[in-house]
Amino acid sequence: MLKRPIPTSDELLPVVGLGSWQQFDVGSSDSDRQPLGQVLTLMQQQGGKLIDASPMYGRAEEVIGDLTAAAGSNANFFFATKVWTTGRQAGIDQLGESFRKMRRKTMDLVQVHNLVDWQTQLKTLREWKHAGKVRYIGVTHYTTLAHDQLERLIKSEAIDFLQVNYSIRVRDAERSLLPTAREKGVAVIINEPFESGSLFQLVKGKALPAWSAEYDIKSWAQFFLKFILSNPAVTCVIPGTSDPKHLLDNMGAGYGRLPDEKGQAKLAAFLASL
């Protein structure tokens, strides 16, 4: 799989990861967890590494920790979780719970979820990074309305990662936020790549354009993901799924040719014409 460097370290990260919102908030039964275990196994086999979670996502952290521990693969993944609370001690307590649930002594990335009390939580994260408990720190949001605030933050604060929404139709991040992240040496994780599934409703029953094969696109999911990955500011995209077949399809976007700037515009224009 294609890999891109994290600017603050040059560590290479595979460009397609996995989101866990909703899909990994399941119970403890075999019927609930078996498909998710298969998703994680296939992800590793296909070269994926980053799994994104949050205390906001119900039992997702615990399920990820349990499944990867049972498979003996916990240390092979890049775990990204979040702190989502107000107050210093509440943040410290929540971080401790995340580490316990995900069965980690060191977390690869901790992000301030949706900028909640970000000044307080970033201070703690810097302390934990200095102590070696956290490798990278960052901030997240999922709405376009937060882009200006995110841009101001990455201009004024030293962080490693930014997580933000961006898709083939919701392109506001291209205007200024993504170029600023690239200029400031901040890695970028993209959420909402499928616009909560609405993109698939738009193309339901429609055939891919024949020319999309020029970019090794074999499905609509890869069409949407390769559009995102064609932006050089993007480090990793995190489509969420609990379906092993969809996981394999998504991972395929990290292989083969990517559109250049002209090709990216062609993808967007075709979708707009439907």
UniProtKB/TrEMBL annotation:
Source superkingdom: Bacteria
Q: Where is the NADP-dependent oxidoreductase domain?
A: 16-261
The membrane-spanning stretches of this chain are none
Stretches of the chain forming a coiled coil according to its record? none
Q: Which Pfam families match?
A: Aldo_ket_red (PF00248)
Q: What SUPFAM superfamilies does the record point to?
A: NAD(P)-linked oxidoreductase (SSF51430)
Q: Which PANTHER family match?
A: D-THREO-ALDOSE 1-DEHYDROGENASE, NADP-DEPENDENT OXIDOREDUCTASE DOMAIN-CONTAINING PROTEIN
| Name the UniProt record assigns to this protein | Aldo/keto reductase
The species this protein was found in: Spirosoma aureum
